Amino acid sequence: MELPTQGALLHREALLKAEQSISRIKDTAGKDPGRLKYHFMAPAYWINDPNGLIFYKAEYHLFYQHYPYAAEWGAMHWGHAKSKDLVHWEHLPIALAPSEPYDLHERGGVFSGSAVDDNGILSVLYTGTVIKDGVLIQSQCLATSQDGITFEKYEGNPVIPGPPEDGSADFRDPKVWKHNGTWYMVVGSSKDGIGKALLYKSPDLRAWNYVGVLAESDGTMGTMWECPDFFPLDGRYVLLFSPMGMGERKTIYLVGDMDYETGRFTWDTMGDVDHGFEYYAPQSFLDGQGRRIIIAWLNAWDWMPWFKDFGPTDVNHWCGAMSAPRTVELDSDSRLIFKPVKELEVLRREHFHIGQTEVTPGASVIPKYVGSDCLEIKAEFEMSGCTAEEIGFVLRGAGDGSQQTLLVYNTKTGVLRFDRTRSDGWSEGVRTAALERTGEEPLKLHIFVDTSVVELYTDNYRTAMTNNIYPEPASIALEVFASGGSANIASLDIWKLRSAW
Length: 501
Ligand code: FRU
Description:
carbohydrate metabolism, about 50% strand, Tachylectin-2, Chain A, binds beta-D-fructofuranose, mainly beta, globular, Jelly Rolls, 1 helix, 2 domains, about 5% helix, ConA-like_dom_sf
């Protein structure tokens, strides 16, 4: 039997310490009624980006940026979970911990990356981050696993020790895929204030050659591109990235064509993956049914003047969660369509339905018993004959009106707004999206409410918006309203959702 190396022993020790820290707190953290009921969360403490998403040996694997010592960002580890259906997740031991000179630092660690199946070996590429003499050093590293649970860091790490001329010290988040027998990697970077996606290739995941700049900002698309993701979709290619320095726009997609000869991606279509405050670093993978699926972190770094924090849940020993999985499809005009995976339907319990109904100002349409902190809502409003200036929902309302979250469509401006100024006393901000629907086209909304998140889809799933709110558990009132005139519901379906945990 081969003896473990010194490096492997140090890694094991770091993992054990992290596991012990989580074991001590997970029961306490698990009792918080504010925990999400059907979105993925770590057992306790901090979580950010999804990492290493892969459908491996007939199971879905989700790794995630994790700080196992507090409900705040710190030296990064990779947490790990798996699922058979994308809805019910089983926690697995922490997969990666900082332990090597290239990834051991209290403000660094094992940063984001991706996973591939290399002839049965689950192989992950991540960014080792350290700060030496005040200088950021980010390198790309490999770790492999025979059983899909226990990982060994490659002794030849880092496999890419530093950025090329086209990049800078901000050089992270490798996403790897295979094309015609060759491995490719896209890495996020920045140079002179221009966000970039850099392309590498390799025959074996170990020796990497720099190819060139896959795509970069034209000066208006952010100063640093975090978590780039690149994949083919119906004959075209898609680049996703999370830009720093692009104001409220947090997750961008570009659709275009890839030339593997030149290594250049030429795009013609740009859009937002999500229009909300809290949807960042989406990562995609291909599943066993050939679906392209994305999952994102339900929070975002922010540089807004009003930005305070990542939510008030740290007092309950957790912070952060993952979005519900969404499929990615290409529309005929090269825009993307994002739909919640159909597996989520297993969560549906009691169903409330109404057909053709007029909504007039001040009238109540939804019975009280329908309210819940865990709901799926599908609504269709007829727009012909609608005289209302505004149509919308009151979500997570308190009985006495002291808390409410408003989702409002303005029929004159065509703008949908999510207003959380009265959600909970903690949340702030109004988020808007100019919808594509026009004229007589019905307004269709598909909304998922889970304890502290609202994910919403409209424009035939071409527009998504995700925002967090933190109302009291008792604030569960739901109402549909019209103001300035009347509106017509064509159909309204509401399901109470069960917990997946
Ligand atoms: C994105 C990000 C990545 C980095 C990770 C660190 O949210 O900033 O660029 O790898 O988080 O936790």
